[in-house]
Amino acid sequence: MFGKRMKLFKLLGFEVRIDASWIVIAVLITWSLASGLFPYMYPHLPPGTYWFMGVVGALGLFASIVAHEFCHSLVARKFGMQMKGITLFIFGGVAEMGDEPPTARAEFMMAIVGPLSSIAIGVIFYGIYRLGLASGWSTPVNGVTYYLAYINGILAAFNLLPAFPLDGGRVLRSILWGAKDNLRWATRVSSAIGAAFGVGLIVLGIFQFISGNVIGGLWMFLIGLFLRNAAQMSYQQILVRKALEGEKVRRFMNTNPVTVQDSITVEHLVEDYIYKHHYKMFPVMSGDKLVGCITTRQVKEIPREAWGRETIREAASACSPENTISPDTDAIQALARMNQGGVSRLLVVENGRLVGLVTLKDLLDFFSLKVELEEQG
Q: Do the Cβ atoms of 195 and 176 come closer than 8 Å?
């Protein structure tokens, strides 16, 4: 879902990050406010004032989204869910969970607090706007506070749509989950509704585009496409989780992985191992002792002219929780670790000894077969 992310700050134990796509949308929001909305609502102000209002309005929207996601994260933490942080991206923000909610009630409480927080923020800004009118504050101040009250109301209404994975869709899933005690079924139904909403927005966007509303139609199309894909992906994630849950890494690991000695040169590694086996990561041994691993990413950082004289001992990464896992770890945790580290292979280590290697392909092949057999049944 995300591209390159940058950490902004940390608050209450949660990291707030920004995706590069958010910079694009922030510029577009500022531009649309400064050259469109505010000049239309408050004519005859100086151009510099409109740009100032646009910047403040965009920052206020940024703060509102962060507050919305913080509310999700705080409730999730109260119910024992691990939160990785908050990331702002082109379509808003997301509180990143390490796992699915433990109960339907936890899902409901975590989901509903988002729209409620947006409503509360909108009411606060509307109160400030009314106070500003009564106190004779300047037009730019009143204009920005009114916009922030309005946009938070829109965010609350949009998020209440019963379209998974929007907050309203999560509320719907929690109700279905609680009624039937079946998370997979509840996710399938709510995801299908979310995908249908996405298709509806795509069709409406195309109609708006043809009718002459080019910008509005394009945004509807993109949001619909995002919503449809996110709904389908959410159901796939549940299928993967349910298929791998309870399965141990020991079941999937290759007990005879290809290893390399730390004394060989980088050129030897490339020619006789990478090009031969087509793997992107190899366990590195010193005799029969595991000392780390070497990846193609690390090889690329070494100048080509140094491949013939430099051994992989200097380039290899030491064993760490990011590249190793225990054979008795749940397979879903292995998948999560691969996802977090952006890797497709993990060393399986027991008592400091290499006992195997598990790959993303092994996990997904098992998932594919299990789902196929269960769906047929």
A: no
C-alpha 365/C-alpha 203 separation (Å) is: 35
Which CATH architecture group holds 249-376?
A: Roll (3.10)
Cα dihedral across residues 167, 169, 171, 173: positive or negative: negative
Separation between Cα atoms, residue 339 and residue 244, nearest integer Å: 15
d(CA 33, CA 60): 12
Instruction: Indicate the SS3 state at residue 34.
Output: helix
Condensed to tens digits (0 to 9), the pLDDT of residues 169-225 reads 889 999 999 998 888 888 889 989 989 988 998 999 899 888 887 777 887 888 888
Q: Would you report the helix, strand and coil content of the chain in percent, each value rounded to 5?
A: 65, 15, 20
- Residue 342 pLDDT more than 70? yes
Start-to-end C-alpha separation, the chain:
33
- The domain limits of the chain are 5-244, 249-376
**Residues 11-25 pLDDT 10s:** 666 667 777 667 777
Task: Give me the residue label for tokens 């899902």.
Answer: 107
d(CA 53, CA 51): 5
Q: Going along the chain, which residue ranges are E strands?
A: 5-11, 14-19, 83-89, 92-97, 260-261, 281-286, 289-295, 324-325, 345-350, 353-359
Q: Peptide bond preceding 165: is omega within 30 degrees of 0, i.e. cis?
A: yes
Neighbours of 290 (CB within 10 A): 18
Residue with structure tokens 């990785």? 84
Report how far residue 298's alpha carbon sits from residue 266's, in angstroms, rounded to the nearest whole number: 10
Q: 95 near 72, Cβ under 8 Å? A: yes
Distance separating alpha carbons of residues 62 and 13, to the nearest angstrom: 19
**What does the mean pLDDT of the chain come to?**
83
Average pLDDT on 268-281 reads 89
Partners of 219 in beta bridges: none
d(CA 72, CA 280): 37
Residue 258 · residue 273 · CB < 8 Å: yes
Give me the residues paired with residue 296 across strands.
none
Q: What is the pLDDT of residues 276-314, one digit of tens each?
A: 988 888 899 888 888 888 888 888 888 888 888 888 888
Give the pLDDT of residue 1. Answer: 41
pTM for the predicted model, two decimal places? 0.69
